[in-house]
Amino acid sequence: MSTISANFGIEKALNLLGVKNINEGTSTGLNNFSAGDVLESYSPVDGQLIGKVATTTKDDYEKVMDAATKAFKIWRLMPAPQRGEIVRQFGDKLREKKEALGKLVSYEMGKSYQEGLGEVREMIDICDFAVGLSRQLHGLTMHSERPGHRMYEQYHPLGVVGIISAFNFPVAVWAWNTALAWVCGDVTVWKPSEKTPLCGIACQNIAAEVFKANNLPEGISCLINGDSKVGEFMTKDTRIPLISATGSTRMGKMVAQEVAARLGKSLLELGGNNAIIVTPDADIKMTVIGAVFGAVGTCGQRCTSTRRLIIHESIYDKVKTAVSDAYKQLRIGNPLDEKNHVGPLIDTDAVKMYQNALTKVVEDGGTVIVEGGVLRGAGYESGCYVKPAIAEAKPEFKIVQHETFAPVLYLLKYSGDVDNAIEIQNNVAQGLSSAIMTNNLREAERFLSVSGSDCGIANVNIGTSGAEIGGAFGGEKETGGGRESGSDAWKVYMRRQTNTINYTTELPLAQGIKFDL
Ligand code: NAD
Fold first, then answer.
1. Is residue 506, in this structure, part of any structural domain at all?
2. What is the distance in A from the centroid of ligand 1 to the CA of 478?
3. Among residues 51, 283, 398, 411, which one has the fewest Cβ atoms lying within 10 Å of its Cβ?
4. pTM of the prediction?
5. Contact 406 CB / ligand 1 (< 6 Å)
6. Nearest to 426 by CA among 378, 468, 382, 477
C-alpha cells in the first residue's frame, strides 16, 4: 500500500468496509463467484492498484437472478412500512460507516473527501426520505360513473429492478434507486461502473449486513460486476421490467433501444451541457463562487458541472476577469487532503479527452484564456491531474455543443435581452441543469417560464451543480427524460393498477352501453 493510503486512513477504511485485500472478487454471500475475468481497480489519486474484482459471468448472472427472483417473492409480501424499517436500519449503518465510505469514494473515484462524505450524506438523506415514503405510496380514489361501484388505483411493486451506474457518483446514484425501489417492494440488481467496483462491493457488504440481521435474503440487493457486456445481460433480460441507467448519452441510446425492443421500461439519467446565464443584474461575487465550484468541483466530472457561462456583453470583461482570477487560487492535488480544491480525473483516457477539447476549441477559433495542462512530478504520479481551463468560444462550436467530462469552461457572450441568452442556453442537445444569476425579477421569471429554460433543473442565483434529494432529479432531450430521487419519482418503480368494485346485484356497463340477455 502507498503512503497516501496509509497517511489518509485508506487501509483502515478498506478494512472496515470489507474490501481490504479484495482479490479476484472475494466478497460476501451472493457475490462470491470468481469465474470471470479480473477487473483491476486503480486509484486515480496515486495510481496504486486498490483491488481486483471478478467480472460476473453469464452463469453467475443466472445465479444472481435466481436469488433476486426468489427474494422478490418474500420481500413484496412484507408491508411497505416494515420495508421502510429495513431501509431505516440501512441508513443507520451508513451513518456508522460514513467516514470510511466517503474515503473509499474519494480514493477510488478521485473526488474530494468532502464530496465523498457528501455522497454518503445523500445516501442517508434518501434513506430517510424513503422511510417516510413507505407510509405514503398512495393511489387516488375516483368517483365511478356507475351506481354502487367504487373505483380507485393502487401501486404494486414491479419486480427486479436493474441499476446501471456511472463512475462519477459511485455510491449515491445506487442509493437513490435502491432506497426507493426497496420501499416500493422491488428487489435490485446493481452493476456499478467498471471504474469503481470496490465502492459497489462496500455498499453490498453494508446492505448484506442489514438483511442478514433481519433474516432476510441478501437477494433483495444484488451486485454484478463488469463492463457494458455485463450490463447487457440485464438490458436484454425480460425478467427485469425496469432498467435505471445513469451514464453517457451514448450508453443511454444503446440501453434505451435494447430495453424498448422487449417493451421494458427504462429510466435514463444521461449527459448534460449545463450553462449559467449571467445578466447585467447578476451579483458578481455569487456568480464567481457558483461558476467556479460548478466548473471545477469533482474535477468537472459531475453530470451537472457548469460547462458554459453565457455572459451579457456589458459585464463580459468584468466576469471574465473575476472568474479567471478565482482560478489562480485553485489548489490541485490529492483529494483526500482537505486543503486541495481539485483532485484528479478518473483515468488517463479522461485526460486525453480533456486535452482533445482544448485543442478542438482553438481549432474552431476559440481562445484559451486560462491555460490547461497535465500536471507531472511528485504527488501527480497517477498522470490524472489536470489544470482547470477556461476558453472563450462561440455557442455553435462543435466542441461547445459536446459534453467533455473534464474541467473546461467555455465563456460565451450574449447581447440584447435575456431571451437571447435563453436561446443560446437551450440550443444544445442535452437538457439537464441550468441556472441564471440575476437580481432582476422579470429576467428570473422569464428564465423559469414556458419559453424559458428547457432543462429538468432550472435554478435562480444558484449554480448548476449540487441538487437536493427532495426534488425529482433528471433532464430532458439527450439527458434521457428520467426522474429519480424525490418528489413522486417513486412511481416509476411501481406498477399502477385501477380497481373497480361493483357492490350491487346489477351489472351496468360503462358509457351506458346496453347489453341485455
Ligand atoms: P458510461 O456511459 O461510460 O458508463 C455508465 C455505465 O453504463 C457503466 O456502468 C457502463 O459499464 C455501463 N454501460 C455502458 N454501455 C452499456 C451498454 N451498452 N449496456 C449496458 N450498460 C452499459 O458513463 P461514465 O463515463 O461512467 O459516466 C459519465 C457520464 O455519466 C457523463 O456523461 C455524465 O453526464 C453521466 N451522468 C449522468 C447523471 C445524471 O443523473 N444525468 C449522473 C451521473 C453521470
1. no
2. 13
3. 398
4. 0.96
5. no
6. 477
Residue 239 shares a structural domain with residue 128 = yes
**Is residue 348 in a domain?**
yes
Secondary structure of residue 219 in the 3-state scheme? helix
- Enumerate residues 6+ apart whose C-beta is below 8 A from 498: 151, 152, 153
pLDDT of 347 > 50? The answer is yes
Could you tell me if the CB of 248 is within 6 A of ligand 1?
Answer: yes
Q: Taking a C-beta distance cutoff of 8 angstroms, is the pair 390, 308 a contact?
A: no
142 Cα: distance to centroid of ligand 1 (angstroms): 41
Indicate which CATH number applies to the domain containing 35.
Answer: 3.40.605.10
Residue type, 130: A
Query: Measured from the CB, is residue 403 less than 6 Å from ligand 1?
Result: yes
Q: Which of 56, 109, 164 to mutate to test the pocket of ligand 1 (most atoms within 8 A of CB)?
A: 164
Angle of CA points 204, 209, 211, to nearest 5°: 95
Question: 496 falls in which pLDDT band (50, 70, 90)?
Answer: very high
| Shared-domain flag, residues 251 and 149 | yes
**Domain check: are 160 and 215 in the same one?**
yes
> Alpha-carbon distance 504 to 148, whole Å?
6
Distance (Å, whole) CA 62 – CA 452? 48
Distance between CA atoms of 214 and 347, rounded to whole angstroms? 40
The range of the structural domain enclosing residue 30 comes to 3-270+485-496
Q: What is the pLDDT of residues 158-215, one digit of tens each?
A: 999 999 999 999 999 999 999 999 999 999 999 999 999 999 999 999 999 999 999 9
